[in-house]
Design a protein that fits this description.
The chain is 8% helix and 36% strand. The chain is mostly beta strands. Strands 1, 2, 3, 5, 6, 7, 8, 10, 11, 12, 13, 14 and 17 form a 13-stranded mixed beta sheet that branches. Strands 4-28-27-26 form a 4-stranded antiparallel beta sheet, with no helix packed on it. Strands 18-19-20-21 form a 4-stranded antiparallel beta sheet, with no helix packed on it. Helix 1 packs antiparallel against helix 2. The longest helix has 13 residues. The protein is globular, with a radius of gyration of 20 Å. It starts with a helix and ends in a 5-residue tail after the last strand.
C-alpha cells in the first residue's frame, strides 16, 4: 500500500497539464490503483463486461422514495447571456443556443467541482443533471448530482437542488464526521453521467459503471446538527451532511481492461453506452487513449458482446493521439470529444471539441471553452450541452475569474 501511494504522489508531481488531471489522479487513487501501461496494450478482444451486481438490498425496507418531480429545488441559477462572460468562453455567437450560470456560492466554491452532464424530460419538464466530486476538506463527502429545471414554462424554471450520492459499503473508520449504518458517501470522481430509462449511469474511474434509480431519491434530516453526520442511526434517523436528499447506488457493472473511465454517455441511437479514457496532454507517447462502445439492453444492462473500440487521432499532439478526453458523444460512425490540455490555444482556450470519423487520420476540431468537461446531446432540440469546471483562484489559467458555467451549442454546426 505504501508503494502504491508513493507511486501516485510521484505521478502528481511529474504530470503538468491543464484540465482536471491532478484531480483525476487523486480520485483514481481513492477508488483503486492506477492503470499500468501494461493494461493499455490490451487488445479490443480483452475488453469485457461483468454481469450486473445488484446492491440495492440496503434500501429495500425502512425507506420512502421520491422522484425528480417531487424534489424541492432550493437554489436559483442565472439564465440569459451571463454564461458567455466566464473566463475562456469562446463559442462563436452564431453557434450558441443556451447557457446557465450557477449561483455565486456554487460557481466560486473550491470544495466541489462539476464534471459530468446529462438530462431527461419528465412530465413535460426538461431537466439537466450534473455530477460533482468533493475535494480538500470536504473530500469525505464524496460525490453529488444536481437536478436543474431548464423548462422556460415551468414554475420552477432554473431552480436546482444538490443531492448526495451514497452507497452501502460502510467505512471502518472516518475522519471529520460521524458515520452511522445503512449507507455512506460515494467517494469517487464522478467524471461522467448518462441518463437511460429513469436511471443514472456514473463512470467510476477504475470500476466501470455505477447505477442509480432516479425514482429512489430519499429525503433525510437536515439542520445545523446534521452537518457532520451520515447514515442511519440506531433510532432510525437519516443523515447526509445537511443535504436534504440522497440518491442511493442500486448496482454496478465492472468493466475490464478499458479503464480509466473518465466520462460516459448514451449514443444518439440509444443502443450503446460510450466511455472515454482521460490521459493528460503531456502523457507518455506510449499511452494511447481510446473510447469504447458497450451495447445496452432494454433494461440498461451493458452487454459483453459487440463491444466497439475506437482510437481517435489528434494531430495537435506530437504522438497524434487524442489526449485530454473529458467528454464523449457518439452518432453513427462519428465520435465527438471534449478535449483539454492542448499544447496550443485557440481564442483563449486550450480545449477543443474534436470530431473523429472512424478510420480517419485526424480529427476535425472546433474552438471550445477553457475547462470544458463532459458532453450531453439533447436530441429533441439538437443541442449539444457541456460545462466548465474551474472556480476562481484554483491555480488554473482563469486566475481570480469565474470559469464555471453550463452551455449548449447548435449541434448542426459541428456535424
Amino acid at each position: 500500500m505504501i508503494q502504491r501511494k508513493l507511486f501516485g504522489w510521484m505521478l502528481l508531481l511529474t504530470i503538468t497539464s491543464i484540465g482536471c488531471t491532478d484531480n483525476d489522479i487523486a480520485s483514481t487513487l481513492k477508488e483503486e490503483n492506477l492503470s499500468s501501461k501494461a493494461s493499455l496494450s490490451k487488445t479490443a478482444a480483452d475488453v469485457s463486461v461483468n454481469t450486473y451486481t445488484d446492491t440495492s438490498a440496503y434500501i429495500n425496507s425502512g425507506f420512502s422514495f421520491l422522484n425528480p418531480s417531487q424534489i424541492d429545488k432550493n437554489r436559483q441559477a442565472i439564465g440569459g447571456s451571463a454564461y458567455t462572460e466566464v473566463y475562456g468562453f469562446n463559442i462563436p455567437e452564431e453557434n450558441r443556443v443556451r447557457g446557465i450560470r450557477w449561483n455565486t456560492d456554487d460557481e466560486t466554491t473550491s470544495l466541489w467541482r462539476p464534471q459530468g452532464i446529462s438530462g431527461f424530460t419528465k412530465d413535460g419538464v426538461r431537466y439537466l443533471l450534473v455530477s460533482w466530486y468533493a475535494k480538500d476538506e470536504a473530500e469525505f463527502k464524496g460525490s453529488r448530482i444536481t437536478l436543474i429545471d431548464i423548462s422556460p414554462s415551468s414554475s420552477t424554471y432554473l431552480t436546482y437542488r444538490h443531492i448526495l450520492l451514497v452507497q452501502p459499503d460502510i467505512p471502518a473508520g472516518t475522519t471529520g464526521y460521524s458515520q452511522y449504518g445503512s449507507y455512506a458517501p460515494l467517494n469517487v470522481h464522478a467524471g461522467g453521467i448518462a441518463y437511460f430509462k429513469g436511471k443514472i449511469y456514473l463512470s467510476s474511474t477504475n470500476l466501470g459503471v455505477r447505477v442509480f434509480d432516479l425514482n429512489k431519491i430519499i429525503e433525510v434530516s437536515t439542520g445545523d446538527t446534521t452537518n457532520d453526520k451520515c447514515g442511519k442511526d440506531s433510532n432510525g434517523n437519516l443523515f447526509a451532511f445537511n443535504y436534504r436528499y440522497i440518491l442511493p447506488q442500486t448496482g454496478y457493472q465492472k468493466i475490464n481492461n478499458a479503464n480509466p473511465f473518465s466520462t460516459i454517455q448514451v449514443n444518439d441511437e440509444g443502443t450503446q453506452f460510450w466511455t472515454g479514457q482521460y490521459y493528460s496532454g503531456s502523457a507518455d507517447a506510449s499511452i494511447v487513449p481510446k473510447v469504447f462502445g458497450f451495447p445496452v439492453d432494454t433494461n440498461g444492462r451493458l452487454q459483453n458482446t459487440g463491444i466497439v473500440t475506437v482510437t481517435p487521432k489528434n494531430s495537435l499532439f506530437t504522438d497524434n493521439h487524442a489526449h485530454g478526453i473529458q467528454g464523449v458523444f457518439r452518432k453513427g460512425k462519428r465520435t465527438w470529444l471534449s478535449c483539454t490540455g492542448s499544447p496550443s490555444n485557440s481564442y483563449g482556450s486550450n480545449a477543443r471539441l474534436a470530431r473523429y470519423t472512424d478510420g480517419a487520420d485526424d480529427t476535425v476540431r472546433f474552438r471550445w471553452p477553457y475547462g470544458a468537461e463532459s458532453l450531453y446531446y439533447e436530441s429533441q432540440y439538437n443541442y449539444l450541452w457541456s460545462l466548465t469546471v474551474y472556480e476562481p483562484n484554483a491555480g488554473a489559467q482563469n486566475g481570480s475569474q469565474v470559469n464555471r458555467c453550463i452551455f449548449a451549442v447548435d449541434f448542426s454546426k459541428y456535424e
